[in-house]
Every structure is written in C-alpha cells, then in structure tokens.
Amino acid sequence: MAHVNILDEDLALDSPMLIEGLPGVGLVGKIAADHVASEFEMTHYANVHCEGIPRVAVYADGDPGLHTPVRLYADEERDLLVLRSDVPISPAAATEFANCVADWFDENDVTPIYISGIPREQPAEVPSLYGVSTGEGDELLSDAGIDTPMEAGLVSGPTGALLNFSVENDRTSVGLVVESDPQFPDPQAARTIIKDGIEPLAGVDVPTEKLVDRAEDIREARERLVQRLQEASEESTQAQPLRMYQ
Q1: Residue ranges per domain, the chain?
Q2: 39 Cβ contact list (under 8 Å, min separation 6)
Q3: What does the DSSP assignment read for 135-195?
Q4: Partners of residue 178 on adjacent β-strands
C-alpha cells in the first residue's frame, strides 16, 4: 500500500520547502539533494513507499542497516525537507509515484522545488538556470530573482509527472531547470542549482566547496574514459561503459 512512513514523530515542520532529488539528466537533482542533506546533517525523517519504486533495499558505507531506496530527510531549524532517491523511477510508473508523494505534500503543506537538467551540447563554466512554476510559485521565483525560460520546453519523467500533478490540482510548486551534461554526472550544474536556485528560494546558505572538488575529479575521470575508448579497438568500443555515468 502506498504511504509515507514517518520515523521521527517528534520532529516538527511548519509548511516546509522540499528539495526533490530524483535521478535525471546529469544527476543534478540527486547530487544537489544529497549534498544539501549531507551538509546540513539532516535527519532521516521518513521512508517513502509508493507504487513505481523498485522493490530493492539499499545500504550505506559503514552501516549494516538496510533502508528503502526513496527517503525523506528533514531539518527542523531550517524548515526544510529533502527527497533522496537511490534509484530511478521508470517513466511508466511516474504518474503513480507522483500521485503518491504529491498527496502527502499537499496534506503537510509542503512547497516542492522540483529539479531537472536540460542537455547541453558544450559544457559551460556557469550553466544557465531558469525557473517554471505552478500556483503561486511564480511569486517565489520573482522574489528569488530566478530567470524565466528563454524558449519553449517540457519536463518529462517522474519530475514532469510531479509538475503535471501540480498543474492539474492547482498546487504551488517551483521547477528549476539547469543546463547539464547529458552523459555524465554534473556537479557544476548541481552547484548552480544550489547557489542560484535553492538558496534564494529556501533562504539557506549551503557550502559547495566539496561540489567544486567533485567537478574536477569527474572531469578528469571523463577525460580518462574518453581516452580509453579512443584507444580501444572497434570491437571493444561500445556504449556500455558510459551507462555507469547516467
């Protein structure tokens, strides 16, 4: 049965904002959400049990305990929630998943910040960011000084389904769209999401030095991978190695 299982009933939130971190293009949402939860040492607040979530159990380094792959983390002082996911949600299951979590958001007066990456052909030193909205989200974007889209587009997958739920049910939400690497994890785009999107919307200050270090490490790993693919024979040159970065 679909439900959100609260683990810490003593933790009190008052109309919190939520950062959505489902895996997508460049993993920007997941990287940003995981980073915020880690930097703020947020409390594992709830487990999410919805149709469409793969039936798997996950564990962390140095911890024998098993957890659900989709979880909510909370910061009572900052009135902030983070939705963390260790698995992708398939497009076929996106609507069911969206209906499950969005109902809970509505019941608890949660204002979600949905995150999506838009593929870019050439990496940019500072990726472009713009915002979209439903309900009263346009006021939030205006107050935060976040740009509006320069061209028409759409958001697909589970994040698109969540935004669609907001449109259909006239709920307030914000969507942040950032230029992202279509093949590799993009911590630079995640940093842009945090500094230019999450911080002004949620009124928080998130250290991002670790993300800058990760960006350099991933850039070097990408260059090594490209070199190995170029040096390999035609028989062994396959797309398979790239999938571990998606």
Answers
A1: 3-245
A2: 206, 207, 210
A3: TTHHHHHHHHTPPPPSS-----HHHHHHHHHHHHTT--EEEEEEEE-SSS--HHHHHHIII
A4: 117, 129
- 3.40.91.80, 3.40.50.10900, 3.30.300.30, 3.40.640.10: CATH of 3-245: 3.40.50.10900
The whole-angstrom separation of Cα 110 and Cα 77 is 15
Count of C-beta atoms within a 10 Å radius of residue 40: 18
Instruction: Record the tokens describing residue 41, joined without a space.
Output: 């040492």
3-state DSSP assignment of residue 64 = strand
DSSP-assigned beta bridge partners for residue 20: 83
The model's pLDDT over 69-91, given as tens digits with 9 standing for 90+, comes to: 999 999 999 999 999 999 888 88
The better pLDDT of the pair 200, 223 is held by: 200
Q: How confident is the model at residue 102 (pLDDT cuts 50, 70, 90)?
A: confident
Chain segment 151-160, per-residue pLDDT in tens = 898 999 899 9
Distances (CA, A) of 18 to 145, 149, 156, 206: 19, 22, 19, 15
CA distance linking residue 158 with residue 20, whole number of Å: 11
Q: Which helix (H) or strand (E) is 74 found in, with range?
A: strand 70-75
> How does DSSP classify residue 57?
-
Model confidence at 93: pLDDT above 70 = yes
